[in-house]
Amino acid sequence: MRRVVVVGAGHAGFHTAFFLRSKGWTDEIVLIDTDSRVPYQRPPLSKEFLWGKQELEDGVFRPDTYYLDEQIELISGHQVTAIERPAKQLILEGHAPISYDHLVLATGSVARKLSLPGGDLDGVHNLATAGDAAALRSGLASAQNVVVIGGGFIGLESAAMAASAGKRVVVFEAANRLMARAISQPMSEYFEKVHRAAGIDLRIAAGVNAVEGIDGRVRSVVGSDATQVDADLVVVGIGADANEEFAAKSGLATDRGILVDEFLKTTDPNISAIGDCARFPLFAADGSSELVRLESVQNATDQARFVAHQIMENTADPYRAVPWFWTEQFGRKLQIAGLVTGYNRTELESTGPDNFSIHCYHDETLLGTESVNAPRDHMRARKELTARLKQEVNATVIRFRS
Ligand SMILES: Cc1cc2nc3c(=O)[nH]c(=O)nc-3n(C[C@H](O)[C@H](O)[C@H](O)COP(=O)(O)OP(=O)(O)OC[C@H]3O[C@@H](n4cnc5c(N)ncnc54)[C@H](O)[C@@H]3O)c2cc1C
After folding, report:
1. Does any ligand 1 atom lie closer than 6 A to the CB of residue 18?
2. Atom of ligand 1 nearest to the CA of 278
3. What are 8-53's pLDDT values in tens digits?
4. Distance from the CA of 365 to the center of ligand 1, in angstroms?
5. Is the Cβ–Cβ distance between 267 and 252 less than 8 Å?
6. Considering only CA atoms, which residue is closest to atom 18 of ligand 1?
7. How far is ligand 1, taken at its centre, from the CA of residue 279, in Å?
8. Domain 113-238 falls in which CATH fold?
9. How far is the C-alpha of 252 from the C-alpha of 74, rounded, in Å?
10. CATH 3.50.50.60: which residues of the chain?
11. In angstroms, rounded to a whole number, what is the distance separating the alpha carbons of residues 278 and 291?
């Protein structure tokens, strides 16, 4: 009897257990998570749950009976603190050590805290877990003046929700455009217009110096230009870092993510790492590759499927996938196929002011397509990018150990 142990029961970890069982793995599966809730999805936390259209129970992957029925041993509420690699066992807080034949690290990422004066006042929220989302939703119910720090996906989804609920919203973004790490300049400009038209006070290329409060509760935010903005609730959406600490302490190679090869194996062949915590070689359609760490449901799920297959069949094909993402703000569903960083020209395909796609090219090579309320364009781009990627499957294989 072999035992696969998965650390982290988020998108990547849950799906590893799910794919193993559904593909016919009959040996042991142990799934461990620090969070004591039934494993749940994160995207609805900043969307349906914040809008009040969903409760936390609606976001679980499967009801708790699933784990018993499928003989997946779910150990919730215990943190893994170390891997004893020679003994192939895990050390947990408050639980006996657990041995493994193959270990999958799916520990996700950790939202950056605001390391500024006042960053720990009551009313200052991060949004990464179900607990965070519940606290934010309840805080928003009575807040009037909301300040969002960070104009990325999570910050802007929260800002859109708060503005739609009638709050006065100010967004500070330190970069010179919105969602700059993930989308093209023209798409940033489109979303800037959408947010401004909805009454959001966007302060772009503007940092924050401090958060001020009275009696331990937030009252205002001081911008880097020394202006003071009233705030009875602050949402911090300034990015996340790979949750790699115990992997690094256990001697696995890490560098802004747990480093894995094209088979998603770490520097220890008995350990895979997937999802938000892993930095892996991503191949583009033109055959070039770069080490990336992606934070998306597609990446977590596709890597889980690959690793489950790899554990069962030891497949010889390396991991290849076209990344895709989505966000929803003010009824605009933005879907992104591919990675658009490095584009040098764009082409617009439009059927209306709020139904269009921007195709991003490097010279003649399509890098990615961003679609607003245009799901067909999105699917077409994914197909095209996938077809081109398949031609590259036999490109140089990168692995730590053969
Ligand atoms: C609010 C929000 C909205 C999002 N919206 C979107 C979206 O619209 N589209 C999209 O594609 N992506 C979205 N994402 C990102 C997406 O949810 C993540 O990329 C995805 O969840 C990654 O899956 P993961 O399993 O790698 O990590 P997670 O889902 O974060 O799971 C990691 C798990 O590991 C556990 N863990 C960590 N360390 C330990 C330890 N030492 N011991 C035990 N357990 C541990 C954690 O408790 C956690 O449950 C969103 C994320 C958030 C937070």
Report:
1. no
2. 26
3. 999 999 999 999 999 999 999 999 999 999 999 999 999 999 989 9
4. 32
5. yes
6. 296
7. 15
8. FAD/NAD(P)-binding domain (3.50.50)
9. 25
10. 3-110+241-313, 113-238
11. 10
